[in-house]
Amino acid sequence: MFWWLYYANVTTDFSEKPLVIWLQRGPGASSTGYGKRLQRFFIDNPVGSGFSYVTSSAEFARTNAQIADDLVECMRAFYKQVPQFKNVPVYITSESYGGKMAAEFAFNWYKAEKEGSIESNLKGVSLGDAWISPEDSVMTYAPYLLQTVQDKQLKSLFTPNIYSGFN
């Protein structure tokens, strides 16, 4: 899997700042532009999106479980390549559909740490506006939208004096 790392813009030792893994929205969306005081680690995921590639179509992830397994494997490879990060605190952050991937990724990573198959310092996961339950999300659209404009506000939107400047 393709990944890139941005070090924090500080003069201290990099190991004193946490590493944040950001998983952006739906598969294939960009994850750049996050924070100045954190190490930022971006992963093009799932394989087949961005610069992450596979040599055979049979290797494409077809489930969130496969995506999570690939992400844990990516972290194993990262720690092998950059072992100085093994003790750096890591937080996985995501939004939208990335929340489904991040939750399963964090759980699989946690299990791998407990089993001793990965040496790392996973500290937490943050899900922002996660698309965990599409059915629940869609079923709340109408009630939410119907409550955003109150009757008094609605009437003021259609008073004649609002349009007087356009006559």
Automatic annotation (TrEMBL):
Pfam families (alphabetical): Peptidase_S10
E.C. number(s) listed in UniProt: 3.4.16.-
Sections of the chain in a coiled coil: none
Enzyme class: hydrolase
Cross-referenced InterPro entries: AB_hydrolase_fold (IPR029058), Peptidase_S10 (IPR001563), Ser_caboxypep_ser_AS (IPR018202)
Keyword Glycoprotein: yes
One GO BP: proteolysis
Source organism, top-level taxon: Eukaryota
PROSITE patterns (alphabetical): CARBOXYPEPT_SER_SER
Keyword line: Carboxypeptidase, Glycoprotein, Hydrolase, Protease, Signal
A single MF term (Gene Ontology): serine-type carboxypeptidase activity
Family of this protein: Belongs to the peptidase S10 family.
Name under which the protein is recorded: Carboxypeptidase
